[in-house]
Design brief:
GO molecular function: ABC-type transporter activity; ATP binding; ATP hydrolysis activity
Order of helices and strands: EEEHEEEHHHEHEHEEHHEEEHEEHEEEEE
Distance between the termini: 39 Å
Pfam family, one: ABC_tran
Strand content: 25-35%
Largest sheet: 6 strands, mixed
Number of strands: 20
Bound molecules: adenosine-5'-triphosphate
CATH superfamily of the largest domain: P-loop containing nucleotide triphosphate hydrolases
CATH architecture of the largest domain: 3-Layer(aba) Sandwich
CATH class of the largest domain: Alpha Beta
Helix content: 25-40%
Protein name: Sugar ABC transporter ATP-binding protein
Structural class: alpha+beta
CATH topology of the largest domain: Rossmann fold
Domain ABC transporter: 4-234
Keywords: ATP-binding, Cell membrane, Membrane, Nucleotide-binding, Translocase, Transport
Length: 368
Amino acid sequence: MAKVRLEEIKRRFNNVTAIEDISFEIPDGEFWVLVGPSGCGKSTILRTIAGLETATSGKLFIGDRLMNNIPARQRDVAMVFQNYALYPHMTVAENIAFGLQMRKVDAKLIQERVATVARSLSLEHLLDRKPKQLSGGQQQRVALGRAIAREPQVFLLDEPLSNLDAQLRDDTRAELKQLHQELGITTVYVTHDQVEAMTLADKIVVLNRGRIQQIGEPQSIYAFPANQMVATFLGNPPMNILSAKYTNDGFDVGEQLIAVPEIIREKLQLRPGQNYDLGIRPEHISINEPQRRREHGEEEVGELVVEVKVVEPLGRETLIRASLPGSTVLLNVQLGGNVRVNVGDRLSLQLDLTQLFIFDSITGDRIF
Ligand code: ATP
């Protein structure tokens, strides 16, 4: 096991800056997930740690050792890719043993290691099969097994579940988490799937356009996103963003007004006529109940009249998309499973204003 430290890593490809100013330190044994939209630089960071890519500038340490000039095979890291490329002519056992054989590990030790790895990944009954006799999920487990068998200091995983179907992906994700708890190997995991990021990570690093947007524990990033990009990236359906103009009467969104909670008036120097982006998550919007308004008072409840455009009943919950008069925004709303709404209905919704986020409309930074 080893900590991994990046200091101001930058990578340019000709005139494209793929990543810039990337600094973080992963403590021994932690599971960190790099997330962000396509092209944000996740794989470039992972490949730089692996030694498959050379940083244009900056320093990389594994343990306390500077790795910039150390070739990939001497870094003691194991990388698993999305296309896990097993050796087709070898059995599962031979695939798992391959890295150890290359390193001339004692045959008896290899046998023991293969048995242990096979047990922890439930591959014992498959050891004599060839890759083409395995399902996708089984092949992926063998690829993981091949990486684990080497007992690397650091595990690097690049979208390892993206070739699996939904059910298998959920199962393998849970297995991966359990495996990490057992082995405690420092892990860096790349994905664009926010569910994988939220469920697997000790810490998430959110990237956009080659730069770090925020680093933190999943729940904390979800609750306190640094900016609009992070806020809308984590959460499904994503957080709603409404452009609003502040007036003395409230936030003006299209043709309707949302009350401004006292705490926001106190904390922010809001100026009439100024524009803000308001953020509210789908789970913090409900169908209007006058009773709540009486209990919580006017100022914590924002009311919006909308027209329902899409209804998605999912059993446990119902997702709707609704349009706001005078605005092109479609509002994502998460309602209970037994709610009956139809396309075309006009609904009065209430926003839980205790859960309101406010972003600077120019920089996108969260200001409340
Ligand atoms: P994805 O999720 O689509 O795999 P990513 O977040 O992993 O994307 P990277 O593959 O790290 O993104 O790429 C970051 C940026 O660097 C992109 O703009 C990409 O086009 C560019 N890039 C990556 N590798 C090269 C290369 N070998 N030559 C030129 N540009 C590259």
